[in-house]
Amino acid sequence: MLPILFLIPLLLSTTSHASNQDFCVADLTASDTPSGYPCKPAANVTSSDFIYTGLSAPGELIKLINAAVTPAFVGQFPGVNSLGLSAARLDLGPGGVVPLHSHPGASELLIVKSGHITAGFVDSANSVYIATVKTGELFVFPQGLLHFQVAAGKKGAVAFVVFSSTNPGLQILDFALFASSFPTPLISKTTFLDPELIKKLKGVLGGSG
Questions:
Q1: CA separation for the pair 74, 55 (Å, rounded)
Q2: Which terms are listed as keywords in the entry (predicted)?
Q3: 28 near 37, Cβ under 8 Å?
Q4: 162: three-class secondary structure by DSSP
């Protein structure tokens, strides 16, 4: 009984602290840190901090992949700071693709708004999970795993994605290999790709080395 009585003040203190910290709107004038942005003073918080309109319009398609990803991370949407979630809009033209990539800091939920998207991921046992996701359907990508999205059929597609982090991070496999200064001999050694093919891909994506 005594240990329980001892915990009551601690629980009350924790509850009181939580009620005073309903949100922490990011102060984007300060520097980001591993624990996130500091909070904007509560007196300066307004309703506009909790709405973001940047996903209402299509993004500009990147010619190489015929796709656009428009983020609503903490840097664009300060109201999500400390809440453990963020979002993005995905626009895919016909044949558009978001190449193999991973988000080290978050799982991802894909919600298809229009069209069909073939989506999939590879797990740590090298099992592959692929599905064609239709309008109104959802697909989930576990945190840190390589995954992709491709417009299915002859039309484009639009989707929204939700992340389990305010800043999920991003590493695109092709760009890491072929848009960087990663030396060609080492890429060949570690991937078993032909050096001439690597040089060709570096020429397309702007890499060196």
A1: 14
A2: Apoplast, Disulfide bond, Glycoprotein, Manganese, Metal-binding, Secreted, Signal
A3: yes
A4: strand
What is the rounded distance in angstroms from the CA atom of residue 9 to the CA atom of residue 120?
Answer: 48
Q: For 47-168, which CATH class?
A: mainly beta
CA dist 38 and 33 (Å) reads 8
For the chain, the 3-state helix, strand and coil shares in percent, each to the nearest 5, are 25, 30, 45
Cα separation, 186 vs 208, in Å, equals 12
The CA distances from residue 27 to 36, 79, 107, in Å, are 10, 10, 25
Q: What are phi and psi of 144, to 5 degrees?
A: 80, -5
pLDDT score, position 127: 98
Mean pLDDT, residues 164-180 = 94
What is the pTM for the complete model shown? Answer: 0.84
**What pLDDT is stored for residue 34 in this prediction?**
78
Closest of 67, 73, 70 to residue 28, by C-alpha: 73
From residue 121, give the alpha-carbon distance in Å to each of 22, 26, 64, 103, 116: 35, 32, 22, 12, 17
- β-partners of residue 128 are 122
Tokens of 111: 């919600």
Look at residue 53 and give its three-state secondary structure: coil
Sign of the alpha-carbon dihedral angle for 29, 35, 41, 44: positive
Q: Over 90: is that where the pLDDT of 150 sits?
A: yes
Domain boundaries, the chain: 47-168, 170-209
Q: Which residues contact 3 (CB under 8 A, 6 or more apart)?
A: none
